[in-house]
């Protein structure tokens, strides 16, 4: 049977998320920031960080575990650095505040390095790194997250999926956009396999004894995800090291929660107090010709003869670019009908109308 998908325009999703967030008391400009990040996640094809997660943010505001009022505050500052108290506001509100500040500093002194404590889940890391591209700068963003990853040789989750994003501008609006979790895969992918009753490939997760497992049930109950690289023999300790690096920049530098002190994923019994890091670097302060060399660097990779003629060599950011182009040609983002129905049910509970339209069905 063809998968039934429902095509919804970006503007409709944006408005819908804003209405739901405002209905539970979020300030309109905070709701707009959140909606923009989530829509961007879906547009780029990362459905695990888009509309699908809206109910989590609605619940965070409803239960008052996340603040709906106030603005982030700069606690400490130099020309190039800042420590920000996110005041337990929505992650994208904190993220935008910090990234704007980092960009401003990079304009003034060549680099801006801003860390935040007291933040919350901020969606796709790439959203913030990519803001720097608009100013022709390099952007970076990192966040710590609830523990889901078991370190090499361990058997307990003590690190999050701690994503890394680095965006660098080339010529003619082209760019390198690396945006990746430091776990081999996202938890959602393991959950999907479990629901379908399929085994997972080796190197995604381990069981409660810390042994790599292809059984998604074992990974989800007592086990955990493993770092990029998988087992020790295949370099998993490098992914483990990158996850630790993210903590250095986030939880440790900002004095936020870190490692297994961070609350359990989806258990909102206490505030998250996540640590996040936002960096902008102005290439103009370095060797001239940055954009040309960036484009050349990407051309070398993209232009080579691929191992499989049907699968060209890509640069980071290309798969998402292809996805956005496909959406734009279709005139919207294709959502699974069950996701749309579920989100509409959530919206009805908080008294929102109009709901997401369900009439534009496509099969693919
Ligand atoms: N806020 C959070 O708590 C949190 C935690 C984890 C992940 N995330 C987000 O989840 C999203 C998905 O992360 P992921 O690790 O599953 O991403 P992914 O594995 O789909 O992609 C990772 C990176 O690899 C690039 N890529 C993919 N295929 C490629 C190829 N063939 N050649 C070259 N480059 C290629 C992509 O462009 C991307 O930059 C990211 O946006 C991330 O920020 C957020």
From TrEMBL:
Claim: Oxidoreductase is one of the keywords in the record: yes
What GO MF annotations does this protein's record show?
oxidoreductase activity
Tell me where on the tree of life, at the top rank, the source sits: Eukaryota
UniProt cross-references to Pfam families, sorted A to Z: Ldh_2
- Which keywords does the record carry? Oxidoreductase
Does the record's keyword annotation contain Oxidoreductase? yes
Matching PANTHER family: MALATE DEHYDROGENASE, OXIDOREDUCTASE-RELATED
Q: Which family would the database say this protein is a member of?
A: Belongs to the LDH2/MDH2 oxidoreductase family.
Q: What is this protein called?
A: Malate dehydrogenase
């Amino acid at each position: 049977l063809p998968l039934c998908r429902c095509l919804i325009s970006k503007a409709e999703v944006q408005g819908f998320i804003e209405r739901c967030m405002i209905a539970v008391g979020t300030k309109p400009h905070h709701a707009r920031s959140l909606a923009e990040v989530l829509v961007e996640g879906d547009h780029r094809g990362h459905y695990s960080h888009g509309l699908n997660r809206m109910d989590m943010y609605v619940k965070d505001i409803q239960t008052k575990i996340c603040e709906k009022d106030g603005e982030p505050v700069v606690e400490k500052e130099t020309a190039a650095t800042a420590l920000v108290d996110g005041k337990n506001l929505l992650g994208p509100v904190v993220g935008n505040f910090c990234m704007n500040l980092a960009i401003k500093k990079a304009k003034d002194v060549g680099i801006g390095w801003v860390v935040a404590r007291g933040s919350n889940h901020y969606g796709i890391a790439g959203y913030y790194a990519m803001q720097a591209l608009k100013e022709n700068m390099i952007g970076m963003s990192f966040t710590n997250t609830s523990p889901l990853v078991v370190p090499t040789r361990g058997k307990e989750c003590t690190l999050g999926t701690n994503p890394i994003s680095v965006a660098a501008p080339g010529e003619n609006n082209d760019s390198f956009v690396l945006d990746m979790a430091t776990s081999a895969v996202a938890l959602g992918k393991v959950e999907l396999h479990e629901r379908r009753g399929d085994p997972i490939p080796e190197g995604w997760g381990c069981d409660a004894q810390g042994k790599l497992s292809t059984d998604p049930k074992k990974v989800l109950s007592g086990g955990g995800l493993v770092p990029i690289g998988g087992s020790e023999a295949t370099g998993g300790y490098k992914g483990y090291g990158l996850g630790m690096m993210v903590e250095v920049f986030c939880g440790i530098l900002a004095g936020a929660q870190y490692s297994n002190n961070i609350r359990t994923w989806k258990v909102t019994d206490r505030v998250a107090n996540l640590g996040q890091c936002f960096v902008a670097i102005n290439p103009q302060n370095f060797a001239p010709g940055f954009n040309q060399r960036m484009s050349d660097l990407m051309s070398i990779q993209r232009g080579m003869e691929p191992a499989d003629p049907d699968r060209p060599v890509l640069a980071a950011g290309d798969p998402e670019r292809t996805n956005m182009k496909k959406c734009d040609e279709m005139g919207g983002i294709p959502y699974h009908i069950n996701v749309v129905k579920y989100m509409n049910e959530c919206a009805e509970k908080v008294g929102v109308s109009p709901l997401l339209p369900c009439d534009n069905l496509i099969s693919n």
